[in-house]
Amino acid sequence: MSEAHLDVRDLEVSYGGVRALNGISFSVPHNSLTAIVGANGAGKTTLVRTVAGMIRPVRGRIVFEGTDITGQDSSETCELGIGQVAEGRQIFPNLTVAENLRLGGALRRSSGSYGANRRRVFEMFPRLEERLKQKAGTLSGGEQQMLAIGRCLMSSPSFIMFDEPSLGLSPLMVEFIFATILELKKSGVTILLIEQNVAESLALAEFATVLENGEIALSGPAAEIADDDRVRKAYLGL
Amino acid sequence: MILQVRNLTKAFTGLVAVKDVSFDVAANEIVALIGPNGAGKTTCFNMIAGALKPSSGSVVLGDEMITGLMPEQIAVKGLVRTFQIVRPMRTMTVLENVMIGAFARTANVEQASEIAAESIRNVGLESKESALASGLTLPDRKMLELARAIAARPKLLLLDEVMAGLRPLETDRIVEIVRALKASGVTVLLIEHVMRVVVALADRIIVLHHGEKLAEGLPSEIGANPKVIESYLGRRAKLS
Amino acid sequence: MKRTLRPSFWPAAVFFVLAAAFGPLFDSFWLSLLTLVFFYAFMGLSWNLMMSAGLLSLGHALFLGLGAYAAAVLTASTGISPWLSIPAGAVIAALAGSAIAWIGGRFSVRGVQFAVLTIAFSELTRVLFDNWDLVGGTGGFFLKAINPDTNRPLVTLRGGPLYFYFAFLVITAAAYFVIQLLMTSRWGFRWRGINEDEDAARALGVPALRSKVLVVAISAGLAGLGGGLFGLMQGSLFPDSVMRLQLSIEILIAPIIGGIGSPFGSIVGAFFVVPLMEFSNTLSQRIGYYGLNTLIYGVVILGIIAFLPDGIWPRILRYMNLIRAA
Amino acid sequence: MATLYLNVIAGGILIGIVYALIALGLTIIFGVMRIVNFAHGEMVVIGMYVGYGLWSVTKIPPWMIAPAAALVLFVLGYALQRAIVNSFIDRPQHSQFILFISFALIITGLHLVFFGPDPRPIGMIESMQSYAIGPLHLDVVRSQAALMALAFVAALILFLQQSTFGRSIRAAADNLIGARVIGIRVHTVYSVTAGIGMGCAGAAGTLVAPIFDTQPFLATDFTLIAFIIVIVGGLGSLTGALLGGVLIGLSEALAALTISPALKTVFSYALLALVLVWRPNGLFGEQER
User: Fold this and answer.
1) What is the pTM of this model?
2) Average pLDDT over residues D205-230
3) Is residue B224 part of a domain?
4) A158, B84, C197, D60: least CB-packed within 10 angstroms?
């Protein structure tokens, strides 16, 4: 498939009465690790939620694997294979770890591979298997992040959006999460990484886009973006 | 010494968000509180401003113990805070929003309207004075949050990531505003991620990491501090 | 003051003067209907005041009832003039209101729980009044009949339909302007601030507890005053009539349908809702289907809230602005 | 004297279990959608009329009719949610409130038009009988009603705990954003939840039809009882609704015996005010939303 895994054209979104995204276009090549960086409030989470179908755009087109999914509900985008590890993890604290995982695998697309997905999640995150009966709310920050990723993998996604996976984690855990993301990419999943931690994500990604106040400031190979002096000054404090 | 924080601690069930943090803020100083996300910065602010009851420790404003007082009592004593996620009063106009801050200082509507108009001019929102807060863009909402706090005539102003999400042009304007506030005698304690701003404004920097005070000192000292670089600024960054 | 919300003084003043001027022209049917309209407009203004601070009252009949009983019992037992007993009733209602607001504020009982707390206190009081002999219990409390020839309405505050039309018109007008002044005072800003975002308002120095107690005290006091006059008009009081839950519901329909954004919305709402109530009552009596009135009333209210979410008055304002702009 | 207390307490607990079923319906709707169904009592009365109607034609005892009433109310709840209530989810609380008041007025209006205001008793021989277990006399009708109510509660809890759809309802209640992130059809969950909530009210209505004579104006009393129980128990908490129901059933029975039947609701309101002051989110509600 030559064209991009995800293609966004002139996307305009207003959220809570404010124009959060005004006319952004970018694409995510197949099996790539593309990063979107920018300060908080720049519209990154709005972008993720619009692609996932949780917010309806005012204008613009979203094309996934060649089909136009603009305006489709999140239940439809998940069935197509768009997975999301949301900002703040959004797990179900009062449900057990096992129930969180079962809910992730409850889609038609992944009903056949439920057992296989479950084994893969336990291989990647053994600690989840130890805590299956525990209420998800009692897990540590890092463990909740593992659960959020595990729950997403249960729906055998072909495309995963990570929204601020490093938020509030210890450096050690951030290292582990980023290693996991890289491992997922190697296993053939396309990754869209949204991060405030600019230094880390640019080091990890092949392509990057800088989002500022709902507009795309810069886009291209991650290495170039990292060397751009505007980015270094604004985001790396150099 | 305008603010004395002693052994501030906050423990939630199974997580100690802030552990034994102590620091002072001298009158008319600008102190920056930095650290990675989730280091406990906002939790500290909430405890100082009275929105959150500390598990232990004390906060003294001027010569008065304010630990455990209600937020409105602390605000009237001159310690006013802004919120990391802005909280505009959506169905009220910009002027009305800022007047609520002004009413902390005066009961007279006329006077409050004057104070509010002046604060709005300070932050450059005068063209949107009668616009509804719900229609403002994010940068304007940040300015509104700032104007509201200024209108309450604080002795000590707590700014929680007021620069986040702003373009360089807008952050420079806020830097000017904060400098003008300092010139007018206001003391400022700010949480900030944008290093450029921290360097431009801060007389002193306090670094929090995992709820504990990692370091405290002048910007140059902090920039060279190995622990700070390793845990927060990332290997390559260096504060000039 | 040129910058803040100028109270729409003149249009409202003209409206009230016209209503007064046309008063004597109405026959007794229209007088009694319009008196009821102004009664519900007045109660709507009182309910809407505490709603401006986000405090949803589902027990407003409690304040109305307390005012009515206090005025009636004080006048009957001590013989003092209604000019004193009605304000006394208003004070009693205001005290009850501030007690509920203090409990709500002090123990941070918010939203749905606060609304149900107001029900609890009003139902509690109603059942206690059912069993309280001083106020006649379920048997009711009856005011001495007045002799129309010798009665001087301005002394006894009782009289014929025209007198009560003017009485309720006057207190509604007074309440409207007092509330407008309150809403553009420091307290008005504070109430709106608390309604929008209580924590943000408190961070700016707004004393949440005091503000809530004050707004509920004034709101309840007004309701008590209206209750006092209503009691004199009815001539007889039963806990089940002046304190029943259905009355608390009827009181809040007009301001919500009219539009809770501005005080005038409650008046517009009453002008729509009360005739609708009366019309559907007479229609169902004439056709003989008991309950048809409730059905019609429900369907119309459903229609309004579904298609005019902000209420009638804001839509009329927008419409008028369109005309002025065109 | 002791047996009198014993029997009154038993009677209170039995009716309390049926109250719990009513409260369960109200609290599950609030738990998932943060909407308060102020027409909940009217839904109970629909269940009463379904019970009364089918009983007077077929003489089947009302407790066996309960599933039919539950189905009728499920369909009504699902349809109302799909057609109107879903568009009110993000509206301010007072307009949600007026919406349900209009439902209440319409339902009560229809009841009055079709059945008139006069009470419709269900005269069954069982109403007079009671099971005697030693000194304990359990009223037959109340016992059947309580058993059936327990069956409904058990079925509902089983459905929520074990079934996939039940789990997605609990997920939506626990974290709405999370539910949408993993692709749960939230509007379908809302409609089914509304159906279940009102189905509980309908079933409970049939069960109480032989105990209280069916008439439209009972609706407000059921709405208030459900509110007291749900607030005392904790808004959105299933255990809160169940234990709250039994607690209120018990306190009403004792208050009626020791003070006077007229004051039984006063006692419940006093209990409500006390709980609100002590734990504003109820006995089992989460303390901090």
Assistant:
1) 0.88
2) 92
3) no
4) D60
Instruction: Give chain C's contact residues with B (Cβ, < 8 Å).
Output: 1, 3-5, 184-186, 189-190, 192-193, 196-197, 199-208, 261
- Give the residues across from B229 on adjacent strands: none
Domain count, chain A: 2
CATH class of D2-126+135-278: mainly alpha
Amino acid at the residue A177: I
Interchain proximity C301–D220, CB inside 8 Å: no
Residues A70 and A133 in one domain: no
CB contact under 8 A, B161 and A40: yes
| Amino acid code (one letter) for C75 | T
Among the partner residues D95, D111, D272, nearest to C120 by beta-carbon distance: D272
Kindly state whether residue B237 falls inside one of the protein's structural domains. no
- Interface touch D178/A107, C-beta < 8 Å: no
| Residue B209 is assigned to a structural domain of this protein | no
CATH no. for residue A194?
3.40.50.300
Chains with 3 or more CB pairs closer than 8 angstroms to C? B, D
Identity of the residue in B49, B81, B89 whose CB atom sits nearest the CB atom of C193: B89
Residues 29-88 of D with CB under 8 A from C: 30, 36, 84
Q: Does any domain span residue B187?
A: yes
A vs C contact (3+ beta-carbon pairs below 8 A)? no
Residues A192 and A95 in one domain: no
In single-letter form, the type of residue at position A76 comes to E
Domain range for B23 is 3-196
Whether A73 and A184 share a structural domain: yes
In a domain, A16, yes or no: yes
pLDDT of residue B235: 45
Beta carbons within 10 angstroms of residue C138's beta carbon: 13
SS (H, E, C) chain A: CCCCCEEEEEEEEEECCEEEEEEEEEEECCCCEEEEECCCCCCHHHHHHHHCCCCCCCEEEEEECCEECCCCCHHHHHHHCEEEECCCCCCCCCCEHHHHHHHHCCCHHHCCCHHHHHHHHHHHCHHHHHCCCCEHHHCCHHHHHHHHHHHHHCCCCCEEEEECCCCCCCHHHHHHHHHHHHHHHHCCCEEEEEECCHHHHHHHCCEEEEEECCEEEEEEEHHHHHHCHHHHHHHHCC
For chain C positions 182-241, those within 8 Å of chain D (CB to CB) are none
Q: Which domain holds residue A210?
A: 6-81+158-236
Q: Is residue A153 part of a domain?
A: no
Residues A104 and A203 both lie in one domain: no
- Give me the residue from C107, C291, C305 closest to D95, CB to CB: C305
pLDDT tens for chain B, 240 residues: list them.
Answer: 899 999 999 988 667 889 999 999 999 999 999 887 667 888 999 999 999 999 999 999 999 999 989 999 999 999 999 998 889 999 899 999 999 999 999 999 999 999 999 999 999 999 999 999 988 877 888 999 999 999 999 999 999 988 876 767 788 889 999 999 999 999 999 998 777 788 889 999 999 888 899 889 998 888 778 877 776 655 444 443
Instruction: Tell me, yes or no, whether A115 and A139 share the same domain.
Output: yes
Q: Quick one: A35 and A135 in the same domain? A: no
- The whole-angstrom distance between D276's CA and the closest CA on chain C is 7
* Among chain C residues, CA nearest to B73: C205
Residue ranges per structural domain of chain D: 2-126+135-278
Residue A217, both tokens: 């400031």
Q: For residue B164, what is the domain's CATH number?
A: 3.40.50.300
Q: State which H helix or E strand residue D230 sits in.
A: helix D218-233
Q: Nearest CA to CA, how far is C73 from chain B (Å)?
A: 40
- Chain D within 8 Å of A155 (Cβ-Cβ)? yes
For residue C192, the chain B residue with the least C-alpha distance is B92
Question: Which chains have at least 3 CB atom pairs separated by less than 8 Å from chain B?
Answer: A, C
pLDDT at D37: 94
ipTM score assigned to the predicted complex: 0.84
